[in-house]
Write a sequence for this structure.
């Protein structure tokens, strides 16, 4: 069965409209927040306070490492969902281009037939 560009766009819309799991919503929200300036400033302030109070660097290393592991997994989940959407959109665009090329070739043939008849 040949899929039309509309089929791919419909699949993309279905993907967008499907109810996201709580974990996917949470991953998207966390990914959005961790990419913000407020997240960066909060960490800078936290590090400055940690240094000001002279707390244990080994414990800070443990906390930062644990946070990095968690954030990496969460951000990869969010990225994988985005990649899936991008793949569907790319396929829809490819099919639309392919369909347009076929229609253009048909129109070209019709115009050439008309030109031959007019001569």
């Amino acid at each position: 069965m040949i899929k039309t560009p509309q089929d791919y766009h419909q699949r993309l819309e279905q993907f967008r409209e499907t109810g996201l799991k709580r974990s996917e919503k949470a991953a998207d929200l966390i990914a959005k927040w961790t990419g913000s300036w407020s997240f960066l400033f909060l960490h800078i302030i936290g590090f400055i306070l940690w240094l000001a109070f002279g707390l244990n660097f080994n414990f800070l290393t443990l906390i930062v490492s644990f946070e990095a592991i968690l954030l990496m997994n969460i951000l990869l989940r969010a990225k994988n969902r985005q990649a899936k959407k991008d793949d569907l959109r790319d396929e829809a665009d490819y099919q639309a281009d392919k369909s347009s090329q076929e229609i253009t070739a048909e129109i070209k043939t019709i115009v050439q037939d008309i030109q031959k008849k007019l001569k």
Notes: The first helix runs from residue 5 to 17.
